[in-house]
Design brief:
Distance between the termini: 54 Å
Strand order of the largest sheet: 1-2-3-4-5-6-7-11
CATH topology of the largest domain: TIM Barrel
Number of helices: 12
Structural class: alpha/beta
Number of domains: 2
Helix content: 25-40%
Radius of gyration: 23 Å
Length: 446
């Protein structure tokens, strides 16, 4: 990264809507692809060739970039299929192809010589020697292994200054080296490096000891409160280290994981890192601001992972008590792309007030009419619904998340504006708990 260029913020695009949200909430670039040969088969199915082409056009119209994932590992029988797929993707003119295999690097260079190649984190590059091999093959950027240190990134850049480096800064961590895991394949037949990991490391396990001589098996009881999520890695959260990462001057792109995560995650996490990056360059960096927003999302607990700490120095990178927990907030609704209507994501009734989360750079008009009122309190906007009315004029006392009707806003809002409330209020409205904290997503019995 040169001194006069800002670092790139790269966000996940699991489908067309999430791609647009990420771009509107501050991403410089997004990554995604169709299900074919992508490491997110379930996410990729939400893109077909037409919608992915629409997404690329949408991004390019706004001066943003799209990187296409072709990052699974081919079997011999699939090589011709890979060639055909890369040729089709090249016709859409993405800004880069993300690949994992040296052989696919060669295929991409031959079939799409004008499209830059980014090497996936699945290749597990952690040193300058391996980086140089891929650079000599024609790779423009390496998405380094999640297990790498910032010092090792500096070492790679010192040897190959023209090679771009991309690091993960937020999202799910893998139990194994960047996806090189066979637990899911063993238990369910779903192969992680074919894009269909079942996330078996997130499950609770019971541990037994077996004596083959006597045939006796004992269940090992763990300490109370420790739990049995023995392989469940916490989520990466490097927001508090963005200043340190950018001070190094060797990182070209900051990457957020999460193509299968929610539209809320795509918007809020991207916006938090957008602010962190922009604040760094204006010398107004304050980690607490970004952490407050990131804590609104569901998570497995957070860890600052290994970029600034060696793995053997970490003893708090696993979440032993739960698979996933609530964040501090719950999405109530999402405004449509044209900004004239909203759709319910969580039970909302006439009289409810919800917080307005705006896309980056957007503004809102204060209004008070028969449908609702928008107020500003300490720089934050709130919408109070006086009526819940569908676009065809049907008035409802309450609306639930299963209701897909477009609902009237008291005034147009920026497209993809998020409406949210605190989790305690959300759970209380649904009668799940009387009082909540960001705990296990298994609700308390009523």
């Amino acid at each position: 990264m040169t001194a006069h260029n800002k670092v790139e913020l790269l966000a996940p695009a699991g489908n067309l809507e999430k791609m647009k949200i990420a771009l509107n909430y501050g991403a410089d670039a997004v990554y995604g692809g169709t299900s074919t040969f992508s490491l997110r088969i379930r996410s990729g199915k939400e893109f077909d060739m037409d919608s992915f082409a629409q997404g690329i056009a949408y991004a390019h119209e706004r001066g943003k970039k799209v990187y296409c994932t072709v990052n699974s590992f081919p079997f011999n029988s699939q090589i011709r299929l890979y060639e055909n797929h890369i040729a089709k993707m090249a016709e859409l003119k993405p800004d880069a192809l993300i690949v994992s295999s040296p052989g696919v690097v060669k295929i991409a260079k031959r079939i799409a010589p004008d499209i830059p190649i980014h090497l996936s984190t699945q290749a597990n590059v952690m040193n300058a020697m391996d980086a140089e091999v891929y650079y000599d093959l024609g790779v423009k950027r390496i998405i380094v292994a999640r297990e790498i240190s910032l010092k090792d990134c500096e070492a790679i850049k010192s040897v190959i200054p023209d090679l771009e480096l991309e690091v993960f800064v937020h999202g799910s961590m893998c139990f194994a080296y960047s996806g090189r895991c066979l637990i899911s394949a063993l238990q369910t037949g779903r192969v992680p490096n074919r894009g269909s990991c079942a996330n078996d490391c997130r499950f609770p396990y019971e541990v037994y000891a077996h004596n083959p001589e006597s045939g006796t098996t004992f269940r090992l009881d763990e300490e109370e409160g420790i739990g049995t999520y023995i392989m469940n890695a916490k989520d990466m959260n490097m927001a508090s280290h963005i200043d340190e990462i950018l001070d190094s001057g060797v990182i070209d792109s900051l990457k957020i994981e999460g193509r299968t995560k929610s539209p809320y995650y795509a918007g809020v996490v991207t916006k938090a890192y957008r602010h962190a990056i922009d604040d760094y360059y204006t010398k107004d960096f304050d980690a607490s601001r970004y952490q407050r927003e990131l804590n609104t999302t569901q998570n497995r607990g957070f860890t600052d992972a290994y970029l600034t700490s060696r793995p053997f120095e970490k003893s708090d990178a696993e979440s032993h008590e739960f698979s996933i927990q609530y964040g501090t907030h719950q999405v109530a609704g999402l405004v449509g792309e044209d900004g004239t209507t909203w759709r319910c994501k969580d039970k909302t009734c006439a009289g409810d007030s919800v917080e307005i989360v705006l896309p980056v750079g957007a503004s809102v008009e204060l209004v008070d009419n028969e449908y609702g009122k928008i107020d500003e309190v300490n720089g934050q906007y709130w919408l109070t619904f006086k009526k819940i009315v569908t676009v065809d004029g049907k008035e409802l006392e309450c609306v639930h998340s299963g209701n897909l009707n477009a609902l009237v806003l008291p005034t147009p809002l920026p497209g993809y504006t998020i409406l949210r409330r605190k989790i305690a209020e959300a759970l209380e409205k649904k009668g799940l708990i009387e009082e909540s904290t960001p705990m296990n997503l298994e609700p308390k019995s009523t």
